[in-house]
Amino acid sequence: MIKLDVLDGEHTKYLDKVINNKNNARKTLLKYVQDYVKSRYLVYDLNQTNLENIGESTISLNVPSTKINAKYSLLHMYNSPEQYAKEYLKDIKKILKEGTLCPYCALTEAKQIDHFLPKSIFPEFSLYLPNMIVICTDCNASKGNISINTTTNTRFALNPYHDINIYSHDFIVCEILPPFEAAKFNIKIIDDLSQVEQELCLEHIKTVAIGRKIVTLWRNYFDELAKRLEKIYIKKYTKYNNEEMIEKFKEIILDEIDTKSIDENIIQKALFIECASNQPLLDYWLNVFEEQHKI
To answer: Superkingdom, according to UniProt (predicted)?
Structure first.
């Protein structure tokens, strides 16, 4: 989960340009909904931190894709290679080519553009940059058309542009439970967030289906870290007493955050912080190393 800067753009200007550049029946339909789309841009901007309150689209959705209608004319603005649409989308297409990490999971390279409010349900936002997020293929497939429920005013995914308070915290917490030879990893959310924010974070993990990926990542790092600490123990066991060795373990674990450049990746960072602060785990590792390397 990674915070993103909002993509700036002259949204209404390009909407006008794209519509005016049409030269067929779509233009007539788009002209008819043009003011409505602009009004929805304003509603989106006013509700950017709580898009679950945006209300349903009034564009008819249950219409055939084989006929020209408002919904598919709006979708066509995004899907078509029209020159002004290309110009408007150039910045997000550039991000797509740069190979950044997916902000929804912070685990996989972003390769697709997601419409936070699905364009099939909110076609008025199909060509609206604040509604577009570059994410990975897996998260896009898992999220699908899930993001909000306008009936219950519920949101199911974090918005990396606007959930500023959540992203200002390292909100993912790793909990490692014994028996440590077959450790159990729990995903928790920090108590500093409100109950609503905590529930949203957990709902996001479920929506983009990354719980198992997070635990797998933690387990791999856990195993690698244990091997690294064992090597340190073998080299240093005559130099330190047990208490000093535990402190050395903590120092090495925290140094990993810097050497692996993971200070800004809250998922990876959570594992190392837990390992450094979990005294029973540190004692377990030291006891195992002592048994395995008796002089």
So the answer is: Bacteria
